[in-house]
Design a protein that fits this description.
42% of the residues lie in helices and 8% in strands. It has a 3-stranded antiparallel sheet with strand order 2-1-3. With 118 residues, the chain is mostly helical. This is DUF742 domain-containing protein.
Length: 118
């Protein structure tokens, strides 16, 4: 039992060591916090629970930061997990959707006035 009284401390060093299989975080990271991850395979029997969870949750694009939050794991640990999944071709990393270029302020005002006149 952990010091917090829970049977398994989610963020404890022993869990992180197990998830990482003893590997240290890499520099630079294989993916950025805002990179979108999309699953390209289904979970398989015998797969690590965290890797299977990533494949299930990433049927639709999720950012690395979101995956980290959902798994309650540090970004460095998730980065190692994703690097392995990327290397196996089980997931794909996409650049984040760029912010749309704002239209001309005069155009925005014209649209706003047009809507107010309706």
């Amino acid at each position: 039992m952990s010091e917090s009284g829970r049977p398994w401390d989610e963020g404890g060093p022993d869990r992180l060591y197990t998830v990482n299989r003893g590997r240290a975080p890499e520099e630079p990271r294989p993916v950025e916090l805002v990179s979108l991850i999309v699953a390209r395979a289904e979970p398989e029997p015998g797969m690590a629970p965290e890797a299977a969870a990533v494949l299930r949750m990433c049927r639709f694009p999720l950012s690395v930061a979101e995956i980290s939050a959902y798994l309650a794991l540090p970004v460095s640990t998730v980065g190692l997990l994703l690097a392995e999944l990327l290397g196996d071709g089980r997931v794909e990393a996409r650049a984040p959707v760029s912010a749309a270029v704002l239209p001309d302020p005069e155009l925005l005002q014209a649209v706003m006035h047009g809507l107010q006149n309706l």
